[in-house]
UniProtKB/TrEMBL annotation, chain A:
InterPro entries: FAS1-like_DH_region, HadA-like, HotDog_dom_sf. It comes from Sphingomonas canadensis. It comes from the Bacteria. Gene3D superfamilies: Hotdog Thioesterase. Residues 6-130 form the FAS1-like dehydratase domain. This is MaoC family dehydratase N-terminal domain-containing protein.
Automatic annotation (TrEMBL), chain B:
Gene3D superfamilies: Hotdog Thioesterase. InterPro entries: HotDog_dom_sf, MaoC-like_dom. Residues 9-109 form the MaoC-like domain. It comes from the Bacteria. This is MaoC/PaaZ C-terminal domain-containing protein. It comes from Sphingomonas canadensis. SUPFAM superfamilies: Thioesterase/thiol ester dehydrase-isomerase.
Length: 152, 146
């Protein structure tokens, strides 16, 4: 079982610079063709400061570029055993290309189901403007760990 | 991409939208575009040997990204305040994700109207990949009175 003492653990904070080319590659991957998601001028014409992040992109910002799965090693969990259970976003302001986003993550819960066959890790993340501290978005992620068999 | 229901009211359904089938190229592009380089999605050797699966699986967040395309096109001019999903099943290469939305509640809030939409993404009829919820906010009285 994952040590429940990790509940409350703050994961390393970092600043993520939101790059237009990254948002365009994301748009291409999901088949997005609306011009405001691809072109800065079109985004400004649509009322954004620059190309906006797609609604689920904050999850990508929430993966530490230095190690996208840095929440697993401290918990002793192998990447091959994890699945994504749930994901929620609450938005305060759009994140756009050119923004520098400060990412603050915390493990807020760890619990198990099915006699320990499944364990759940809940991570809550706040995305803030590095310059002003203003909140862009908050997120809640639930990771499912598939244990091969209940461990003693 | 989508058509609005004739009236913004509880129970109204938005037109469904079906994305292009997920290919292995889609998964490779999404790995690069999202920064999620988990080999479970792009490396069949890893999927088989390390994860005990027959093949690679799609990123859950790719399903959510497709639902995000859908939800941002439902109500022109609306602001997205909340978006959540619960991942029910794993997508596979070849799946064509179909998104649906149904209005659950319509509530007057300061300055406008909040519309809560129940979302689903299916790989085939009745085979749900993800279920979720969005809250859209429409300023003024543009939503009308249901």
């Amino acid at each position: 079982m994952i040590d429940r003492a990790h509940i409350g653990l703050a994961l390393p904070a970092y600043v993520y610079p939101v790059e237009a080319f990254q948002l365009r590659l994301f748009a291409k991957a999901v088949g997005e063709t609306r011009p405001e998601y691809l072109d800065s001028a079109a985004a400004r014409a649509a009322g954004y400061r620059d190309i906006p992040c797609a609604p689920s992109f904050p999850f990508c910002i929430g993966m530490n570029p230095a190690d996208p799965f840095d929440m697993l090693a401290p918990l002793g969990v192998d990447l091959g055993r994890v699945l994504h259970g749930e994901q929620a976003f609450d938005y305060a302001a759009p994140i756009c290309a050119g923004d520098r986003v400060r990412v603050e993550r915390r493990i807020t819960d760890i619990f198990d189901r099915k006699g320990g066959a499944l364990e759940f890790i809940v991570i809550e993340t706040q995305f803030r403007d590095e310059a002003t501290g203003a909140l862009f978005c908050s997120a809640r992620q639930s990771i499912v760990v598939r244990n091969p068999e209940p461990r003693a | 991409m989508t058509a609005n229901p004739t009236k913004i009211e509880p129970g109204a359904e938005f037109a469904a939208w079906q994305a292009a089938p997920i290919t292995r190229t889609t998964l490779a592009l999404y790995a690069g575009g999202s920064g999620d380089h988990n080999p479970l999605h792009v490396d069949i050797d890893f999927a088989r040997e390390k994860a005990g699966m027959d093949d690679v699986i799609g990123h859950g967040m790719l399903t959510m990204a497709l639902m995000g395309r859908y939800v941002t096109a439902l109500v022109p001019g609306a602001r997205l305040d909340h978006f959540s999903t619960r991942f029910v099943a794993m997508s596979r290469p070849g799946d064509a994700v179909r998104c649906t939305g149904r209005i659950e509640t319509v509530e007057a809030r300061e300055g406008g109207t909040a519309i809560t939409v129940a979302l689903a993404a299916e790989r085939a009829p009745g085979e749900v990949l993800a279920a979720g919820q969005a809250v859209l906010f429409l300023s003024g009285d543009a939503a009308g009175t249901a």
